[in-house]
Specification:
The complex is a heterodimer of chains A (156) and B (160). Chain A has 156 residues and is of the alpha+beta class. Chain A is built from four helices and five strands. In chain A, β4 (118-123) and β5 form a beta hairpin. Chain B has helices spanning 17-38, 42-62, 68-77, 91-112, 118-136, 141-150. In chain B, α1 (17-38) runs antiparallel to α2 (42-62) and α1 packs across α3. Classes of the chains: A alpha+beta (156), B mainly alpha (160). Chains A and B meet through α1, α2, β3 and α3 of A and α1, α2, α4, α5 and α6 of B.
């Protein structure tokens, strides 16, 4: 059954099981770290301002805009669109926009987007105030909006 | 106030738990395959990896809705669970099947041309992706597809 020559040297059954256990442990650790960090809102560094024309719309939300970047091959983009859409429905002056990056790869480059969904939270002037990588969490988005809007209207 | 100007196509709808169930079976098979490869049962490992690659091809080309694991899920698991809270577009898990086919396929080709280590490495990589998808709901396509978009490998056709 074994190949000769440049083949890798077989290990015994116990060593092989140890390698499998190690692999499962590493994968579990990676998964736990990923789950703990994904979808968390982070304050934006610097001051960058978007114009509505940058994403081909006429206007942003009066008070804030949830600008979501998606692709078609992204299941969590759908759940994020529902979360952000319902927040925009609940709160006056907040608009949810979704952009498919397959149509606008230039935006993926410009904002150095490495995963979908990625959401930028813009204030009323179009300045980027926060960034959410991964599936957005409703409570986290509302807290971020509170901070940006300087009120407790969103979580009330 | 929500007016999402979405270009994302509407969902046709599969139970989102079905692809994760399938990824769980795939992860277990890949772990068995890695074990066979490590203990030197190389022929058995190659045959099993080929079978796993063919199952990925089934999902990638016929769509996850027509994959045998989907049928298994509908027959055995779904009747025991509550109805799904929401349905999911089959396109993302179908893309994920293509990623699995690529990883296992490259491993098999390299193995066939004389790189024996390609077999356990491909099995281990595919295992990590399938395991993270099944247990944590991690979406590899959410990053890989975007990399292809950014590399301009994937472009929107004017008619699409």
């Amino acid at each position: 059954m074994e190949k000769s020559g440049v083949t890798s040297r077989p290990v015994n059954g116990f060593a092989a099981l140890g390698i499998l256990l190690g692999l499962v442990a590493v994968a579990t650790a990676v998964g736990l770290v990923w789950r703990a960090t994904t979808g968390r809102s982070r304050a934006a560094r610097g001051h960058r301002v978007l114009a509505p024309a940058d994403v081909d719309v006429m206007a942003f939300g009066d008070r804030a805009t949830l600008l979501q970047f998606s692709t078609e091959f992204c299941a969590p983009c759908r759940s994020t669109a529902r979360v952000l859409g319902s927040i925009a429905d609940d709160v006056d002056g907040i608009r949810h926009l979704e952009v498919d990056l397959t149509d606008r790869p230039d935006l993926a480059d410009r904002f150095r987007i490495l995963q979908t969904p990625t959401t930028l939270v813009l204030d009323g002037t179009g300045a980027i105030r926060a960034r959410i990588g991964g599936a957005a969490r409703a409570d986290d988005v509302r807290t971020t909006l509170d901070r940006i809007l300087g009120s407790d209207h969103v979580t009330a | 106030m929500s007016q999402p100007e979405s270009t994302v196509s509407a969902a046709r709808g599969i139970d989102p738990r079905s692809p994760r169930f399938g990824a769980g079976i795939t992860a277990v098979l890949l772990l068995v395959d890695l074990f066979l490869s490590l203990v030197g049962a190389t022929v058995a490992a190659a045959v099993l990896l080929l079978a796993i690659a063919l199952l990925f091809a089934w999902g990638a080309f016929a769509g996850v809705q027509r994959h045998p694991y989907g049928a298994l899920y509908r027959a055995l698991i779904r009747p025991r669970l509550a109805p799904p809270a929401e349905l999911e577009d089959p396109a993302p898990p179908t893309f994920a099947q293509g990623v699995g086919l690529l990883v296992t396929g490259v491993g098999l080709v390299l193995f066939a041309v004389g790189v024996p280590l390609a077999l356990p490495i491909a099995a281990a990589l595919a295992f990590v992706a399938a395991f993270l998808n099944s247990v944590f709901g991690y979406c590899l396509g959410c990053q890989l597809y975007l990399l292809l978009v950014r590399a301009r490998v994937i472009r929107r056709r004017a008619t699409a």
